[in-house]
Specification:
alpha/beta; Lambda Exonuclease, Chain A; Nucleotidyltransferase, domain 5; 6 domains; seven-stranded mixed beta sheet; 24 strands; globular
């Protein structure tokens, strides 16, 4: 296989294309894109040739060893051939330093990375086969013949990777692994590859999956869309929406049904407007706006066309003026392209039009978001064409697409007399009509359609062993409902079994609350609180019992105290006074609240269990609501203690930090944990944003030990990254890539280094005087392993990680008492995680915050060897002062 321009172009985009070029060479006809590209390029070359005033000696020549290059001269369209290569360069420049600069001519207005890599590969093969001295290449692009330099050293890794792939293709008799990519749209092999991808039901057919995601699923044994469809699991909380689920999309394709996470709710306006914008991305030029204004009985079409860039502003002003005449409207578009375009154009318009564009944007709606989040149609992608085709809408030109419209526009510019303008306006308006079709379908959408299924209603029978079985026939549901234990016991067995009848009768009796009065307290004073007169008269008296617990050395007992109070009359003052507002007197005493909170926080009993224990052990009747109130009262009382914990931690030399998810109904929140050797502090935040840390830890001057979450990088204090997290990641990736020798070397050498360090820690502890000796080993590890050149993507990704965090990985070598892992924080997360498993779906933010206050105090007491319940009973507010007693 000779290295040609076609092979190099192919290898940059797709391995399969390069392989097919090798096998089939140029047997297939050129695509419309290739024809237009070559025409535009020839036009560009002619302009450059005229501009440089080159004669025939300086273009369209074949290189030979006899050919002499003149210094300071450019030669265009020169071919280099031998047994290995057959390359055609757009140009080459021989400079005064006796080195060559290969030239690439691009007709487009922007330079892509693929352009840089192509000319870099050409340069590489020139150096290799013809011994040219080449340090950089040059790209001339756009109508203004702008130029940019390409340094080969900057692309060394990409060049090496491409060359390795070329060598593999040379030796291989079968194609390498390939996926469907965006380049497929303009590739001549698209029909061949599409057929093969559909035959193997390839995951890349799903437009939302990226190559890395596909690789991850392949590692799990999932290679086809059908296999992926079987991995869908309905969510536990049906009211909480999830992001786009490729497995649900795959299920829709397999079942040929529409799955809905949430029925769409579209605004009802008297005027519905649908619009679509066509443009040429590399020029930032927008030449066509199609609009359909639809009222109840009328649909009016508009097309605003720009012949060139000078007319671009005019068509947007026409569009804005049209929109300005509309009232009570909603503007539908598909994708973010249109709104991004309006925002970009607004910057170039007078302020009056900018304000109008802002109003237009406020009244716009992106229909694509519904298919990205809520609605799963049995199509491989969520593109407008796929969705509309599924709804039986067809374009006049079946091949029409956004990419093809760009080619048509280029062709029209080359030949303005053609019918391509009409073709473009038709395609543009048909895009709007397709959007109307989709919008009308969304409005008519309901869960009653045979092909429509609410995703929340899907049940995996092999998983929901204890769930409610939904039968296909309604009769079966009725029969099953009457087979439940409670129903049979309370409605059937009691009629035939006397023992069952007696047992049920007992449980139906209202449970009596046995509250024998143990102590009575009279709240009435002996004399008037104003004049000290003893001649007072009780005019209203009320009694209220308070149920509490008494803690003794050998146990706990219930105590009921009856308080008597009310109103009295002073015969001297001639005034009435209230002794005590009996309504404010709590029904349950402070000790009972402490005991209940202790059961909840320390022993993790459920609210229902605590209520039952109080009833069975103390004959105290309570409720779940009262338990929640107890926790709120005690948590509020100890807020001062809670704040003291983080204040003390900020003054320490070390803090471990971590975070974990905490869902509240449909909202994802996060619980952050801060820990050191003697304290633990929890805080709930609604987001994972770490901005609050700067204020919370503003006085902290010690070392922060954390995982590799990038949010911590903004902290100004010294940091130690958790090496356990790193070795877990290394191990997980190694299990998936055991044949990657470069990655294996990193793991092996890092393991040896870390093993030596841990041996020292085991012997001497975390003392820098003994750990300092390992700094040389760290430097040796970086020079020998990390700083070498890698080809493996995985090895390169870890190389970047080791370099980025070098100082933070081995900071503990410079300090006394700084651990190399974050296990302290991870251990502190476990108490919350265990509670999280038991919490109800109706949990509120306030409830979590109260729980975290008490959990912080509990864990801090444990870290200091204190009894949490004894601390609560003591009445102390400072754990640190209490621990010193």
């Amino acid at each position: 296989m000779k290295i040609t321009n076609e092979i190099l172009h192919a290898i940059i985009h797709c391995n399969q294309k390069a392989f097919l070029k090798k096998v089939q060479e140029n047997l297939l006809p050129k695509t419309e894109f290739q024809t237009v590209f070559e025409t535009l390029k020839q036009k560009q070359q002619s302009v450059i040739q005229t501009k440089l005033s080159l004669d025939s000696n300086f273009h369209n020549i074949d290189y030979s060893s006899d050919l002499k290059f003149e210094k300071g001269k450019i030669q265009l369209q020169i071919s280099f051939k031998n047994t290995e290569v057959d390359l055609r360069l757009d140009g080459i420049y021989y400079n005064q330093r006796n080195s060559f600069t290969p030239i690439l001519i691009s007709p487009f207005e922007k330079v892509q990375k693929s352009d840089k890599l192509f000319i870099a590969l050409e340069s590489h093969y020139l150096k290799q086969n013809f011994n040219f001295k080449i340090e950089e290449a040059k790209i001339i692009f756009g109508n203004q013949q702008k130029s940019t330099k390409v340094k080969l050293s900057n692309l060394a890794k990409d060049i090496k990777r491409a060359i390795t792939t070329i060598e593999q293709i040379k030796k291989s008799k079968t194609p390498l692994l390939f996926y469907k990519i965006s380049h497929c749209q303009i590739c001549e092999f698209n029909p061949i590859c599409s057929e093969k991808l559909k035959e193997r039901d390839d995951l890349s057919l799903l437009g939302n999956l990226k190559p890395k995601e596909i690789e991850q699923k392949n590692n799990r044994g999932i290679f086809s869309v059908k296999q992926l469809s079987y991995t869908f699991r309905p969510k536990k909380n049906p009211y909480r929406r999830r992001k786009f689920l490729p497995e649900l999309k795959a299920l829709a394709i397999r079942e040929q049904k529409i799955f809905i996470q949430k029925l769409p709710e579209l605004e009802k306006k008297t005027t519905k407007i649908f619009f679509d914008i066509e443009g040429i991305p590399d020029r930032d030029f927008y030449y066509l706006i199609g609009v359909i204004v639809k009222t109840e009985n009328l649909a009016t079409e508009y097309s605003f066309w720009a012949n060139d860039a000078t007319e671009q502003q005019d068509i947007f002003i026409q569009f804005i003026d049209l929109m300005n005449t509309q009232n009570d409207f909603i503007l539908y578009h598909y994708g973010s392209y249109e709104i991004q375009t309006l925002k970009r154009i607004a910057k170039k318009l007078p302020s009056l039009y900018q304000n109008r564009i802002n109003k237009i944007i406020e009244n716009s709606f992106n229909v694509l978001t519904l298919f990205s989040n809520d609605i799963y149609i049995p199509t491989y992608t969520n593109g407008l064409k796929d969705i509309a085709n599924y709804l039986e809408f067809n374009w006049t030109d079946e091949k029409a697409s956004g990419l093809l419209s760009i080619i048509w526009r280029y062709n029209w510019e080359l030949n303005p007399t053609s019918n391509l303008k009409e073709k473009l306006t038709t395609y543009n308006i048909e895009d709007c009509k397709a959007l109307i079709k989709v919008q009308e379908w969304l409005i008519s959408l309901s869960e009653n359609n045979d092909k429509t299924v609410l995703a929340n209603s899907i049940k995996q029978q092999n998983i929901f062993k204890w769930g409610v079985t939904v039968f296909a026939l309604e009769h079966f549901n009725e029969i099953n409902a009457k087979a439940y234990f409670d129903y049979q016991r309370q409605h059937i067995f009691l009629r035939t079994e006397r023992k069952v009848y007696t047992a049920i009768s007992k449980t139906k009796q209202t449970s009596k609350q046995y509250n024998r009065i143990d102590k009575r307290i009279n709240l009435f004073p002996d004399k008037c609180i104003k004049c000290n007169n003893k001649d007072i008269k009780i005019i209203r008296s009320s009694k209220k019992p308070q149920i509490d617990l008494v803690f003794m050395k050998s146990g706990i007992k219930k105590q009921v105290i009856e308080y008597q109070g009310g109103a009295y009359f002073c015969k001297k003052c001639r005034k009435n006074f209230m002794v005590e507002d009996m309504r404010r007197l709590p029904t349950y005493g402070h000790n009972l609240m402490l005991w209940s909170v202790n059961q909840k926080i320390q022993y993790k009993l459920s609210t229902e269990s605590i209520v039952n224990v109080l009833k069975d052990s103390f004959s105290i009747k309570s409720s779940a609501t009262q338990m929640t109130r107890f926790k709120e009262i005690i948590a509020t009382k100890y807020e001062e203690t809670y704040n003291e914990i983080i204040k003390k931690m900020s003054q320490s030399k070390l803090i471990h930090i971590d975070e974990t998810i905490a869902r509240i109904n449909e909202i994802d929140g996060y619980v952050w944990v801060f820990a050191n050797y003697d304290s633990v502090y929890y805080q709930f935040r609604e987001t994972r944003e770490p901005n609050f840390l700067k204020e919370l830890l503003q006085d902290f001057k010690g070392v922060l030990v954390s995982d590799f979450y990038t949010g911590y990088d903004s902290m100004e204090c010294e940091q130690q990254k958790c090496l356990v997290h790193l070795i877990r990641d290394l191990n997980e990736d190694f299990m998936k890539h055991q044949l990657d020798e470069e990655f294996k070397q990193i793991i092996s050498e890092f393991g040896n280094l870390l093993r030596n360090i841990i041996a020292t820690i085991d012997k001497y502890g975390l003392k820098k005087i003994h750990l300092n000796k390992h700094k040389k080993e760290v430097e040796k590890f970086y020079k020998k392993v990390i700083l070498q050149e890698f080809e493996s993507d995985l090895a390169i990704s870890y190389q970047k990680r080791f370099i980025k965090y070098k100082e933070k990985l081995f900071l503990f070598l410079n300090h006394d008492g700084i651990p190399w892992n974050n296990n302290n924080a991870e251990h502190s997360i476990k108490p919350f995680a265990k509670w999280r498993k038991k919490i109800s779906k109706s949990l509120t933010k306030k409830n979590i915050e109260h729980h975290l206050i008490l959990l912080s105090i509990l864990q801090t007491c444990k870290y200091q060897g204190l009894n949490f319940f004894e601390f609560l009973k003591s009445g102390e507010k400072s754990i640190y002062e209490y621990s010193e007693k």
